[in-house]
Amino acid sequence: MAKKLNYADMAAAIITQLGTQENLTNVNHCATRLRVVVRDPSKVDAAALKKIDGVLGVEVRENQVQVIVGQIIEDLFLEVEKRVGKTNANGAGKPQEKKLVAIFSNFLQLMAGIMSPVIPSLIAAGFLTCLLLLLNLVFGLESTNSTYVILNNLAQSVFYFLPVFVAYTSAKKFDTEPVLAMLLACWLLYPDWVAMAGAGGYTTYFGIPALLTTYNGAVLQIILSVWVMSKIDQLLKKALPLSVRHFLKPFLLILITSVITLTLTGPLGGLVTNYIAMFIAWIRNYASWAAVPAIIIFASTIGLLCPGFHLALIPIATTSLATVGYDDFINIWFFCCTITPGFIALAVALKSKNRRLKEIAFPASISALFGGISEPTTYGISYKMPKVYFCSIATSLITGLYAGIVHLKCFGFGGYSLTNILLYLGENGDTTNFIKALIGVGIMAVCSFVFVFMTKWDDSVYNEEDSEAENAAAVLTSVELTAPAQGVYIAQENIADPVFAAGTLGACFGIRPETDEVLSPVDGVINSIAPTRHAMTIKTAGGAEVMVHIGIDSMKLGDHEIETLVQTGQAVNRHQPIAKIDRKAFAAKQLDDTIIVILLNSAAYTQVHVDDQRQQLIAAA
After folding, report:
1. What is the average per-residue pLDDT within 530-559?
2. DSSP for 339-398?
3. Distance between CA 505 and CA 602 in Å, rounded?
4. What is each CA distance from 382 to 387, 401, 482, 569, in whole angstroms?
5. Do residues 533 and 425 share a domain?
6. pLDDT tens-digit profile of 246-290?
7. Contact criterion met (CB below 8 Å) for 162 and 318
8. CA distances from 314 to 276, 277, 279 (A)
9. What is the pLDDT of residue 231?
10. What percentage of the chain reaches a pLDDT higher than 90?
């Protein structure tokens, strides 16, 4: 049985291996990944990140790091956010490479970041659609029944008001006003505009021609408009005096953006959307059998370079659902490439005799088959055993080819798990398409088991991980952390910073220094030094991970007001000076100069307590 993860320890370990908090400029997440932008990629220890218990894989592209953890991401992100706070979504460190591949990849990442927070609402709509089908088939609830009508309204509202959701996530991504972005989207959905647009043709807005078109379910149009809004926002911040900015900027921002939206970005986004729809219609009419296999091949290559890119293609699915009432492209691709890994993981779990692999494979199978999340299989199994990965791709391709030939359709978003299999049921209880979907599931199950059991693959990599984990656990010994300076002792609960006081980073205590010297509290090796020099971590031979944090809000100090006396990788002894501070600078800027010692991996010890009289933190292994 898989052991329960300690998310607090996991978050602390991830932050440390990412180069500590000071190296992070942006931290976000999608359904399965922690997405981080770092200042200095050289400080990221990808190998160490992969060894953290619960981490399924790591992808590093320039200064963008993705830590793949699967369905635990929400719990883990809460712990990460406690430690790093809410980082600026417009953070520094964007890739400098502007080659075509990089631009395309960055665009997909941008779209994925915008669409990712919207996915829960789309999945909820899918489940509501399944509930309606059950109520109709099992309980005979008619479509005219008030409960049916209200539930259907709830499910369909997600797609009608999708521009409002996307406006919010786009505004967060582009660092502009979320409420004004939502107002812009609501304006495009206002009944009077919808009535005007029904006539078609053109009207004028401030004398400028404006296309009469509806925007319900629109995505690209609102993303373009909010991006323009963010640029106008930046210009207005520079142009308007502070005395009038508070009330004048929102007015000018929404007014100017509204003109550009109706006359430029709205029609332009609609034009692009229409061409995409025409392309999909052409594929549907002339090459439907090849569409899903083609994108599976594409995904199996670019997915290695740009994990999570599939989220960028969700608007294609929502557009199809809104126009023709079904999706026979994106959801079918998800269907083939999500359920297949579930069966692959199940086959691996039944065939393998490796204990650690079984602990990974059984939960991964459940995650894919019933949760619709394939990353635990992909990163925890397939990428580590390439032959298994090829089994998965082959199975997905065969199923995709079958789905294209029979023209399999999904009548709601989220039809890529067994839980939502009813989304393949046709109107008025038509089971023809539903039977096709069940046959597709059968093909995935049979091919997965045949390929996995017929293929010889090496799972010894999991023996190495077991050995490393056991060795890591074996070296953990008791440790004593002594005072980092001469001065007045401050108990953990009395430290002025609530994060330290609550022990969020680990058990700790502080010293209000009476000299300028900062001392090492343990024997060990300097693991990292923050760019601002106000924090450094020390790793002991006994496995203790210790942070010395100099002052509170000390990042506000100048370059020369904290001097480090050691370097990363240097061995240090207890009581050895590791830094010097300018206490007068702290006083002049009214900053708290408390030096705090934190045992970052406190949870790994059986007992941790602080001896207030001796000014020591003692942890028993």
Report:
1. 79
2. HHHHHHHHHHHHH---HHHHHHHHHHHHHHHHH---HHHIIIIITTSHHHHHHHHHHHHH
3. 9
4. 8, 22, 46, 35
5. no
6. 889 899 999 999 999 999 998 887 787 767 667 766 766 766 666
7. yes
8. 13, 13, 16
9. 92
10. 17
Instruction: Pick left, alpha or beta for residue 201 (phi over 0 → left; psi -120 to 50 → alpha; otherwise beta).
Output: left
388 in the same domain as 501: no
Q: What is the C-alpha to C-alpha distance for residues 45 and 43, in angstroms, rounded to an integer?
A: 6
Please give the span between the terminal C-alpha atoms of the chain, in angstroms, as a whole number.
24
Q: Note whether 416 and 521 are same-domain residues.
A: no
Shared-domain flag, residues 489 and 446: no
Q: Which of 380, 335, 375 is nearest to 361 (CA)?
A: 380
Q: Are residues 388 and 330 in the same domain?
A: yes
Residue 222 counted as domain residue: no
Distances in whole angstroms, Cα of residue 156 to Cα of each of 213, 216, 424, 429, 457 = 20, 11, 17, 19, 46
Which residues have CB under 8 Å from 87's CB, separation 6+?
A: 24, 25, 26, 27, 28
30 is catalytic: yes
Place of tokens 């890739």: 95
Say how far apart CA 539 and CA 235 lie, in whole Å. 47
CB contact at 8 A, 404 and 337? no
Beta bridge partners of 607: 620
- Is the domain of 426 the same as that of 400? yes
**Domain presence at residue 314:** yes
Which residue is associated with the tokens 């002594």? Answer: 482
**Beta-strand relationship, 487-490 and 607-611:** unpaired
Task: Quickly count: other Cβ atoms within 10 Å of residue 572's Cβ.
Answer: 20
- DSSP state string for 298-313: HHHHHHHHSTTGGGGG
Claim to verify: residue 592 and residue 494 sit in the same structural domain: yes
Which entry of 30, 337, 391, 410 is annotated as an active-site residue? 30
d(CA 384, CA 368): 18
Does any domain span residue 430? yes
Task: Report the predicted TM-score, pTM, of the whole model to 2 decimal places.
Answer: 0.53
How does pLDDT run across 439-498, given as a tens digit for each residue?
999 999 999 999 999 998 877 767 655 554 444 444 678 889 999 998 888 888 888 876
Q: What's the CATH code of the domain at 74? A: 3.30.1360.60
201 neighbors 218 (Cβ within 8 angstroms): no
Which of 421, 442, 468 is where one domain is finished?
Answer: 468
Q: Using alpha carbons only, give the angle 84, 86, 87 rounded to the nearest 5 degrees.
A: 85
Backbone angles phi, psi at 480, to 5 degrees: -120, 130
Q: Which residues, in sequence order, are CB contacts of 214 under 8 Å at separation 6+?
A: 194, 197, 198
Domain contains 62? yes
Same domain, residue pair 423 and 517:
no
Domain that holds residue 427: 287-468
Q: Could you tell me the pLDDT band of residue 97, with boundaries at 50, 70 and 90?
A: very low
Please choose, from the candidates 515, 511, 517, the residue with its C-alpha nearest in 3D space to the C-alpha of residue 580: 517
Q: Kindly tell me the number of DSSP H helices and DSSP E strands found in the chain.
A: 22, 19
**CA angle, residues 156, 423, 349, in degrees to nearest 5:** 130
Task: Give Cβ neighbours of residue 506 (< 8 Å, ≥ 6 apart).
Answer: 12, 547, 598, 599, 600, 601, 602, 603
Under a CB-based contact definition with an 8 Å cutoff, are residues 407 and 401 in contact? no
Domain end call among 434, 468, 502: 468
